[in-house]
Amino acid sequence: MAFGVRPAAPVIPAEDTAPPPESRLQNGEVVDLAAERRRSGVDEVLRALDEELVGLAPVKARIRQIAALLLVDSARARFGLNTNRPNLHMCFTGDPGTGKTTVALRMADLLKRLGYLERGHLVAVGREDLVGQYVGHTAPKTKEVLKRAMGGVLFIDEAYYLYRAENERDYGQESIEILLQVMENQRQDLVVILAGYKDRMDTFFQANPGMSSRIAHHIDFPGYTLPELEQIGMLMITRAGYELSPTAGATFREYLARRRQQPRFANARSVRNAIERARLRHASRLFDSHASRVSRDDLIRLEPEDFLASRVFSEPLEDVVHHA
Amino acid sequence: MHLTQGTFSHLPDLTDDEIKAQIQYALDRGWPLSVEFTDDPHPRNTYWEMWGLPMFDLHDAAGVLFEVSECRQAYPEHYIRVNAYDAAKGRQTIALSFLVNRPAAEPGFRLDRQEASDRQIRYTTHSYATGRPAGRRYADPGP
């Protein structure tokens, strides 16, 4: 008798689909898809996605499709129909601060609820976590990261740094090869998500066609429009337990319109930083004012001057209003 | 002779699914696992060869099982075991250790008796497999 096989044990067909034999449905029976949906809790994740992430319509649509596919697949499996395990490796492209990491987190949770992944944790790594510094260092390092990510999602931020065209002896290539092998052979154990800027990702895929073909979902994250940024900002302010005074609303909008035009604008991340700085100014305004008593309103209300002190307003800028 | 060392060794050999469930049990308790192999399974041979380093920060059994199958590929005719280490203060020891691979043919052990002074008898267990050089001990099942 050998490990790994046991002839005496009841033969269970292909462990992927593996409907327990007694629950195998017959031709005339029906599956309650709505009940399955409730049980898996997909809707909670999708709703949270809708509420917490502003905009990103194409991304949400694609996630909804994936959820539907997996749910229908599990219903098909109940009838013993052939369900090939879909390839769910993904590539998220988009500008900084468009919510790629957040969506990846939600995706891990969703895939766990739908039974595609066992654990549903997210392991976020960059080049330095995967690529070694000397010969023979890369393979164990990459394998260790892959093992840590098994059962969940491996999120590789700025994946194009793995490949350095200018240096043919770069160890990145070795790491890519191991990644490819595991992405192909151990699809049941982990989902790989690559993320980065669109143009650089495209060059990366041109240099590594094998990688591109193993990724089924190329999802592009559009940048946010001004009203969306404002909505994000309001969401963040409310969540931090603050509110804008009636006049500060317009100032905040103008701030966003100006900041958007400036270099190194990182969408939602810039909005968060702006709010952090406004909180600092708000606190020091209260600290420096000689009023000895402050009301609850004073503590939660951000005034226009909290934003106006920003460097963003001091730099000259044309056609701000047009763009808004 | 069916070697019985470690946990579950009196049961039939575990299937991969059962091994996976045991590994997951260890991971859920926060015990890091390691894979070891040897072709000298003498009961007093405590220190087997390490297959890579112990694996920390894992969440899912698939990662350990991956190493087990890599090790099986490299050493199909060796004994392979999985150890789980409990680092909790006051315990700090191997909490679970079980075989996950064994050679196709296991010739077993011979008991040697040595007559010492004053008609004392000293006993030694001697593995038949160690008659061959290390690395080729279980290579062919033999007659």
What is the SS-derived class of chain A? alpha/beta
Give the assembly state of these chains: heterodimer
Structural class of chain B: alpha+beta
| Helix/strand order of chain A | HHHEHEHHEHEHHEHEHHHEHHH
Strand content of chain A: 5-15%
Strand element count of chain B? 6
Number of helices of chain B: 2
Percentage of β-strand residues of chain B = 25-35%
Number of helical elements of chain A? 16
Largest sheet of chain A: 5 strands, parallel
**Average pLDDT number of chain B:** 91
- Share in helix of chain A: 40-55%
Which residues of chain B form runs of ≥5 with pLDDT under 50?
none
Task: Outline the low-pLDDT stretches of chain A.
Answer: 8-19, 319-324
Question: What is the radius of gyration of chain A?
Answer: 25 Å
Describe what you observe in this structure:
The complex is a heterodimer of chains A (324) and B (143). The radius of gyration of chain A is 25 Å and the shape is globular. Chain A is built from 16 helices and seven strands. In chain A, helix 7 (172-185) links the parallel strand 3 (153-157) and strand 4. Residues 8-19 and 319-324 of chain A have low confidence and may be disordered. In chain A, strands 2-3-4-1-5 form a five-stranded parallel beta sheet, sandwiched between helices. Chain A has a two-stranded parallel ribbon with strand order 6-7. Helix content of chain A is 52%, strand content 9%. Chain A has 324 residues and is of the alpha/beta class. Chain A has helices spanning 33-40, 42-52, 57-78, 100-113, 127-130, 138-149, 172-185, 198-207, 209-214, 226-239, 248-261, 267-288, 296-300, 304-308, 311-314, 320-323, and strands spanning 90-94, 122-125, 153-157, 191-196, 217-221, 243-244, 301-302. Helix content of chain B is 19%, strand content 31%. Chain B has helices at 16-28, 61-74, and strands at residues 33-38, 49-55, 79-86, 93-101, 109-115, 121-127. In chain B, helix 1 packs across helix 2 (61-74). The two termini of chain B are 14 Å apart. Chain B is α+β, with helices and mostly antiparallel strands and 143 residues long. The interface between A and B is medium-sized, with 24 and 25 residues.
